[in-house]
Write a structure and sequence with these properties.
The complex is a heterodimer of chains A (214) and B (159).
Chain A (H helix, E strand, L loop, with lengths): L2 H29 L10 H6 L4 H9 L2 H4 L9 E2 L4 E2 L55 H9 L9 H10 L1 H4 L20 H13 L10
Antiparallel strand pairs in A: 1-2
Chain B lengths: L1 E6 L2 E6 L7 H8 L18 E4 L2 E4 L12 E3 L12 H8 L9 H14 L5 H7 L9 H17 L5
Parallel strand pairs in B: 1-5
Antiparallel strand pairs in B: 1-2, 3-4, 3-5
Helix pairs in contact in B: 2-5
The chains are: A mainly alpha (214), B alpha+beta (159).
Chain lengths: 214, 159
Amino acid sequence: MNQQGMNLHTLPLRLAFFALISVGFAEEPAAKASSPGSNSSEEERETVHDTDFYKMMRVVMHQRCVNCHPSDHIPKQSEDAHPHHFGIKRGQTGQPNHGAKATQCSTCHQSENNDFSGVPGAPEWSLAPHSMRWEGLTAQEIAASFLDPKRNGGRDHDAVMHHMTEHPLVLWAWNPGINAAGIPREKPPVEKAEYIKAVKTWFEAGAIIPPAAK
Amino acid sequence: MKLSFTLNDRPTEVQVDTGDEPLLWILRDTLSLKGTKFGCGKAACGACTLLVDGEAVRSCSYAVKFAEGKSITTIEGLGSEENPHPVQQAWIEEIVPQCGYCQPGFMMATAALLDKIPNPTDDDIDQNIINICRCGTYYRMRKAIHRAAELSRTNPAGK
């Protein structure tokens, strides 16, 4: 049998195969629609929860933002959130959020990205205090946390808004640099200007946390 | 651009291109101080560790422009043959090095540790001394760190 004959015989099977995998891809985004900051597609995120609150939270809940707001005492790295290499963890004395006493964040991280080493950097690079842990929380829980003066370092709404829109470590998210292999780090799913506008608008409207979507 | 800083207690000036060059490169290539080593170039091994204003810094990931106005100490400035730093003395007593390549970085990190924690526990050593040694001299280093702490109490840093 020549090759053309064999292709005709297998055509129905191949058509069925492609139909099945097309359905699989179509269904995949819907399954991830419920969690801002998850690894769902950009198109899917744009069609779901397009409010100021969720635009803000899509940035806040990006993995690399959560990496320095761990639920434990170990900073995470990269989009896969692996524990920081070399056994790095929160210190126990001195300035604990800056690491161990003699091997601090500043041993490797400086106030700007280093393209020679691939080590990221920004002013005041450190872990967030444990009271500001976000890892594993919902958007509503995280928002409640950063609005709570008992957990956010005593900040009122105005101070939180300014921190979220002006602090260079926060804004570093849109200038994350390259890693040691020269590969650019992923930026948040919302443009910086759009994020800042969403944060300010949300706070001006009273910083109301919407109930979780069903 | 011209940069000025103190290097091993001596005022030093260097001319650099952009200032983004790693301090490690300037020390080795421009100032001919070869003691600080290039190990990985991505702050993962610690061979390039030196002190900036007394704090341990991995110089392969430290832009030289940040050295402006600072006090830099390399292995060459830790102590002298006539008056070794307690860390250097302990390293000799415990015969720590094998190939020796990683040792300057470890010694500088240890000097920073003892400055912050004069009597470190094994846990303090585990938390703070995280350089790597391919020859596996860790157990001798641990003994040397404890010995250096002991020497520091009886004979402070040799300078």
